[in-house]
Amino acid sequence: MESEQQIFIGSSENMKALNVPKNARLIITSPPYWNLKDYGHPDEIGKESYDDYLERMVTVFDQCYEHSHENAILAINLAHRRKNKVYRPIMWDLYAAMQKNGSKWKLIDNIIWYKPNELPQPNFYIERLLDNKFEYVLVFAKNYNYDYIFNKIRVPQKWLGKDPRKEKQNPNGRCISNIIRIPAYRPPNLKKMNYHQAAFPEELVQFFVDLYTNEGDTIMDPFVGSGTTLKVAKSMNRAGIGIEINPNNSKLIYERISENYEPVPYTKIDLIHSSTGTVEEHSKLNKGKRRRLVRIEEK
Ligand SMILES: C[S@@+](CC[C@H](N)C(=O)[O-])C[C@H]1O[C@@H](n2cnc3c(N)ncnc32)[C@H](O)[C@@H]1O
């Protein structure tokens, strides 16, 4: 199946002027944080005052509402930003700003992306803070009718067949949790390709593509950056729409779309839950533990 990937160069604050199609079933994006990175364009979002930043972000997500499928899902990857010791909960401030401005998006879920290997930020030591290891993904739907696509992701149950309580067993496996564990990394070839900005992991995009779309559907990213969303969309047989303000990114986006992404098994993503894994994997993993347990009982 050939899945078309379209790139629009311009500000996602004005999708009408860019003629962005209105068929995306999933909008997945990692917006610029406030006052953090310079993406090299004078009109990029993130350099203005905090209030103006929130206002511009609200405009983008209003545009996403108007330029998407009637049953679309919007997934925004965000976290807090600390500047001059002031903690800015961007995710909640954005949500409040959306509410205040009459956004039609309905918040339906909040997923934690746990990054076990996230490096500590140097000033966190000085300021007596714990290292941050997670980000949020806020999930919005167009209404509360639950008519969006939802493909529940399941992984093998650890004790399937061993637990005598039949009602606890599901031959299809257990549901994946809302804490997804994906190591923080940049796709390794990105640096070589001269992109030093905040790309999100392909696995994060894969998770939402699987959850909220089917093959042949369209995915949109209004802050497409290096093109991660389009690369994953193409490899998973979805069409893609990417919007990026900096024209210098086009070449990189095209290059990344031409690469293949091999989706990873969910037993590797959702490791936070103790009962994830195949029965074989777990019997191997727990061998030592069971022996210890027996020794304690013998005392
Ligand atoms: C955090 S990066 C996105 C990285 C992307 N998820 C990836 O994997 O490469 C944010 C991107 O938004 C772009 N951007 C900033 N303001 C924009 C606007 N008004 N419209 C479209 N893109 C914008 C920046 O140039 C930057 O590439």
Describe this structure in words.
Helix 6 (202-212) packs across helix 7. The longest helix is centred in the first third of the chain and has 17 residues, at 50-66. This protein has an 8-stranded mixed beta sheet, sandwiched between helices. Strands 4-5 form a two-stranded antiparallel ribbon. The N and C termini lie far apart (63 Å). Helices cover 30% and strands 18% of the residues. It is α/β, with parallel strands linked by helices and 299 residues long.
> How many separate helices?
11
Assembly state of the chains shown: single chain
Bound chemical compounds: S-adenosylmethionine
Mean pLDDT: 86
Q: What does the overall shape look like?
A: globular
Low-confidence runs of at least 5 consecutive residues: 274-279, 288-299
The name CATH uses for the topology is Rossmann fold
The portion of residues forming beta strands comes to: 15-25%
Radius of gyration: 21 Å
Assigned CATH class: Alpha Beta
Biggest sheet record: 8 strands, mixed
Integer tally of domains: 1
The strand count comes to: 12
CATH architecture: 3-Layer(aba) Sandwich
Which H/E pattern describes the elements?
EHEHEEEHEHEEEEHHEHEHHHH
Short structural summary:
The protein is α/β, with parallel strands linked by helices and about 300 residues long. The protein has eleven helices and twelve strands. It has one domain: Vaccinia Virus protein VP39 (Rossmann fold, 3-Layer(aba) Sandwich).
Describe the SSE topology.
Layout: E1 5-9, H1 15-18, E2 26-29, H2 50-66, E3 73-78, E4 81-83, E5 86-88, H3 90-100, E6 106-114, H4 122-126, E7 134-141, E8 154-155, E9 174-175, E10 179-181, H5 189-192, H6 202-212, E11 218-221, H7 228-235, E12 239-244, H8 250-257, H9 266-269, H10 279-285, H11 287-298
Parallel strand pairs: 1-12, 2-3, 2-11, 6-10, 11-12
Antiparallel strand pairs: 3-7, 4-5, 6-7, 8-9
Helix pairs in contact: 2-3, 6-7
The protein binds S-adenosylmethionine.
